[in-house]
Design a protein that fits this description.
Two copies of one chain form a homodimer.
Chain A (H helix, E strand, L loop, with lengths): L2 H7 L4 H8 L7 H13 L6 H8 L4 E8 L8 H14 L4 E8 L3 H10 L5 E5 L6 H9 L3 E4 L11 E4 L1 H14 L5 E5 L5 H15 L10 E3 L4 H12 L7 E4 L2 H13 L9 E6 L15 E4 L2 H16 L8 E4 L2 E3 L10
The structure holds a DNA duplex.
DNA sequence: AGAGCGTTCCAAAGCGCTTTGGCTCGTTTG
DNA sequence: CAAACGAGCCAAAGCGCTTTGGAACGCTCT
């Protein structure tokens, strides 16, 4: 059933039927009702390919997925996706993943914009002065950044959590507990979130005249193994930290293992706080010693990004609105006063 | 730059230019070269929306993503995606994720097929007599199943690993080591892979006259917490197993924690084998006691599925070819002879 | 020489929608 | 009472590609 057939059986022009269906005003209410009714009865659904050719709108949102033999997709992605899908579903919005060479995402961005494959895109894990962001901004496609970048002379719409605040809180807590030698096991420090976390931590220490030593900051991809290695290196130092803040639950697994291997205990010898993005399959309260966390559901963020993208597509949202979510600090058994 | 302009500047018809570009034979080699050359020089790219309307082909592959507030996307998904993207990238194939109500995926399948949104789809985590599979088969869109179903009167193309064989091997190893009371901590037993694994395990035991007791099989969503719970229940039983096979590394984390909590040791009190889908962020060799695994890279599977989907789209692959990959059994420190 | 044929090209008809630019009424306005 | 106007509808022109059904041409073959 296409528009032609439908309009023919209604003895109306395609124009009128199309307008009736799309809510244009130059159609009488009675006609509209007739059309709507017939459309529903015959299960008419406009052909998206045709509509797309005519309007240039695709009804999809896009994401450029960096890939490559040595490129791992962040496991957080799937949780974000859950949230995104959750919202998108109710709006019949599909998501297009365009895999790109991790070393050359630009080509892919240009392609999907030139081809009008999607109505909007979102970017994640931005870096300071991230080229993708500048590019997408220049290309003029609606977008939202999940996370933040820095160092641009323009504003842009984003959704981020208060990473600096979160690690400031975490740091402050540890300092209040009397810890003097703190360490940070961070994510890749080319990404803004990691920079913000380090900044927050430093600020908390500075407030008490403390410093985060060079040797006490690690920036690594967030794997269990890297958490382990970083923790071993830190704890085997001549002046080991008495408290560690860690950027992910997965790394925290490695930290816990290292602590064990060294015959130390949490929180007796080491206090530990980690950031929790809220995975259904790994929960901080189930760590050997329940883990204190800075918590923020990445899934909710996904849903919110989808919502805002939809709003941007339909013109309800405009401008460079930044949105920063506060982060909960949840104290559990993994922190205690500094050992004497 | 569109076809009209390009053909005009070449003083050729659109027909000829289109044919030259798409490799049709009714164009002289010289003309083809001229056209190709001009197209490249002017950066001409056919408009996909137009091509799509004309041909009905979209150049995308689809996946229906079940979502819902209480539906979690499997973390394996992201690894599979890595592989898929890796292949798709080199072929400019995009992936469309269509979120669907987890309780009604059918509507979404029908929609994407009716709309011709994608040229092929893949399904994952099939169940026996999976309705989606029957549906997709009926709708006639090219597809591949990642995993297997059972109980159909038709064949279908799939890619699966030898789950039964893997757990048969694992079970046999444990039996050979003298274990008599074995247990299985499995994934959701409505999914075929879990059924196959149980089958393999039972077969291994049966070969030595052993049985897998009712109480010694757990089927749960693969989370750390469920692994912990299952292990506690098993180990606190009056006749605890001396060996456990576990369907995922994530669950194995929970098992290890439970063993610790109960003051037991691996492999002294309990031998443990788990299935490893090969996550970059959690590796069996990094478990407190290096974990023996049945290993199969889900990422490679993703790449292979993409490859086969592409082949199906272009007509290179046809029919109901099933492909079953063998699984490596990797023995590490977590297994030992049964305690006396 | 005329028929037959393969090669190379083209004009035009789709694909199914949206949107522009009227056209036809009946109603209001000066 | 003519002019102006708005409401409601329509025909047709896109959107940019693919594909059908020739046409023109130079050959070969009888």
């Amino acid at each position: 059933m296409n528009l032609k057939q439908l309009s023919h059986m209604l003895s109306l022009s395609q124009t009128t039927v199309s307008r009736a269906l799309n809510g244009y005003p130059e159609v009488s209410e009675e006609t509209r009702r007739r059309v709507m009714d017939a459309a529903k009865r015959h299960g008419y659904r406009p052909n998206p390919s045709a509509r797309r050719l005519a309007t240039g709108k695709s009804g999809m949102i896009g994401y450029v997925l960096p890939t490559g033999a040595s490129v791992d997709i962040d496991p957080h992605f799937v949780e974000f996706l859950s949230g995104l899908g959750d919202y998108a579903r109710s709006h019949e919005l599909d998501l297009v993943l365009s895999p790109a060479d991790a070393d050359d995402e630009e080509t892919t961005y240009r392609r999907i914009v030139a081809n009008r494959q999607v109505d909007a895109v979102y970017l994640s894990a931005p870096r300071p002065a991230d080229k993708r962001l500048a590019l997408v901004n220049k290309l003029g496609i609606p977008f939202i950044v999940h996370g933040r970048s820095e160092g641009f002379d323009f504003d842009y719409p984003y959704l981020d959590i208060d990473n600096e605040g979160a690690f400031h809180e975490a740091g402050r807590l540890l300092v209040q507990l009397g810890h003097k030698r703190l360490a940070l096991i961070n994510g890749n420090d080319r990404e803004t979130f990691a920079i913000h976390r380090e900044r927050g931590m430093r600020r908390a220490l500075a407030a008490s005249g403390l410093m985060l030593g060079e040797r006490h900051v690690c920036s690594l991809t967030m794997t269990e193994e890297n958490g382990y290695r970083a923790a071993r290196r830190l704890l085997e130092d001549s002046e080991p930290p008495t408290a560690i803040a860690c950027s992910s639950l997965i790394m925290a697994l490695g930290v816990v293992r290292a602590v064990r291997d060294l015959g130390l205990t949490i929180p007796g010898d080491l206090s530990l706080v980690a950031h929790d993005d809220v995975f259904p399959w790994l929960r901080p309260e189930n760590f050997p010693v329940p883990l204190s966390t800075t918590r923020s559901s990445i899934r909710l963020a996904g849903a919110r990004v989808a919502e805002r993208l939809a709003a941007r597509i339909s013109g309800l949202e405009e401008g460079a609105r930044g949105e920063v979510w506060p982060v909960d600090l949840v104290v559990r058994g993994s922190v205690a006063g500094a050992p004497v």
